Amino acid sequence: MRSKWQTKTLGEVCDILDSRRRPITKSDRVSGEYPYYGATGILDYVEDYIFDEKLVLIGEDGAKWNAGENTAFIVEEKYWVNNHAHVVRPHRDTIIDEWLVYYLNACDLSEYITGVTVPKLNQAKMRSIKIPIPPLPEQKHIVSILDEAFAAIEEAKENAEKNLQNAKDLFESYSENIFKKEGDSWMQVGLGDKEFLQIIDGDRGANYPKKSDFSEEGYCLFLNTKNVLTDGFDFSSVMFISEEKDLAMGKGKLQRNDIVLTTRGTIGNIGLYSEDVSYDSVRINSGMLIFRPKIEKILPEYVFEIFRSGLFKRQIKEHVSGAAQPQLPIKSLVKFNIPVPISKDDQAKMVLELQHGYFQSKELQSLYTQKLSALDELKQSLLRKAFNAEL
Q1: So what's the pLDDT on residue 93?
Q2: 71 burial level (CB within 10 Å; 0-12, 13-18, 19+)
Q3: How far apart are CA 112 and CA 362, in angstroms?
Q4: Going by DSSP bridges, is the β-strand pair 130-133/85-90 parallel, antiparallel, or unpaired?
Q5: Does 318 share its domain with 387?
Q6: Is residue 1 scored above 60 in pLDDT?
Q7: Which of 1, 55, 172, 343 has the smallest number of CB atoms closer than 10 Å to its CB?
Q8: Where in the sequence is the domain holding 39, given as residue range(s)?
Q9: 114 Cβ partners below 8 Å, 6+ apart?
């Protein structure tokens, strides 16, 4: 019963072994068999160890301290710990390691965090954390219930994550199968074929807007990376330039039915500038390109659907260059080929088929994402009950 529980600070029921931890710079580490721990887990494996016992590590800096973010974890056997994780040995005649870890991970510890630029759980604040402590037999009983429940939840999460990935892959395989149908009524169109598509770069010259040129309201919407997602535009966060600045710039202005493709940093995001978009004046930034279809030959909606298909994404993976800053230059894009029905009526039918497959995939993704959220909430609910003596 809760009446038999005590409340003590972490410093009262644990030995703090921070003085024994030692960081090793990456250049000085010698590879070996022993885990090298930091604030969030194993960072490396090294040739030596400084601890050889079961202890609890708690993130000091570089960690997360909100409820459910696994601030604390148990380590065992031989290992090394750097100076970004507190090292704690519970007084096991009062509190067991698992109880301490479950409690710390169930709590929002943000009230104990100092620093704005570099948030930190310093040792004094950590020592002051209040912990509910039931009798040892009750701790062990509750921990056994949580262990069993969490194991089942983790198994369910693994299955949901696999199903979520399968749902994401569904549209790619669906679109691949659709394009296998192509025959005499289809043609292969190169993205560099100006008879079908014009590729337009933005103005990256002297008139490119500076930070001071942007405002929350204005004449011309200037697209940023937040505005172009994997499946269309998002205008929840926008910035504008003045009419004067817009007129000073050259190429890079959208016309209705243009398709935008991101080509630097996050590559392959797309948007269709249809009549549904409420902004009449829109420009791309330097990490995007405009694709302007010749509407008498190819439907803009078809180009959009091709661009979010598995077929197109596979070509992107084959041509992306740069590791630190991935990019997809025009010289690579013009090598892409896309299958296009000769008849615009057939293109329109394909658009409907591709949209159907895409929305089926999104519905499944939403279902499994909700399931994962529900499982995370179930874990937090169990922890709340555990520390309120309701299990």
Answers
A1: 97
A2: buried
A3: 40
A4: unpaired
A5: no
A6: no
A7: 1
A8: 2-134
A9: 120, 121, 122, 125
Lowest mean pLDDT among 207-216, 247-256, 382-391: 382-391
CA distance 234 to 218: 18
Alpha-carbon distance of 234 to 269, in angstroms, equals: 11
Name the residue with tokens 């994401």: 168
Distance, in Å, from the CA atom of 24 to the CA atom of 46, rounded to the nearest integer, reads 9
Record the tokens describing residue 362, joined without a space. 């999104």
Q: How many Cβ atoms sit within 10 Å of the Cβ of residue 173?
A: 13
What average pLDDT does range 307-331 have in this prediction? Answer: 88
Give strand pairing partners of 97: none
pLDDT value for 176: 80
Which residues neighbour 118 within 8 Å (Cβ) at sequence distance 6 or greater?
61
Position 173 scores a pLDDT of: 85
Number of domains the chain is built from: 3
Q: pLDDT tens digits, residue range 178-214? A: 887 677 899 999 999 999 999 999 988 899 999 999 9
Both tokens assigned to 200? 């337009």
Tokens at 330, concatenated: 């025009």
Strand order of the sheet with strand 41-46?
41-46, 31-38, 78-81, 51-52
2 pLDDT band, cuts 50/70/90, is confident
Q: Any idea what the Cα angle at residue 153 is, between residues 150 and 158, rounded to 5°?
A: 125
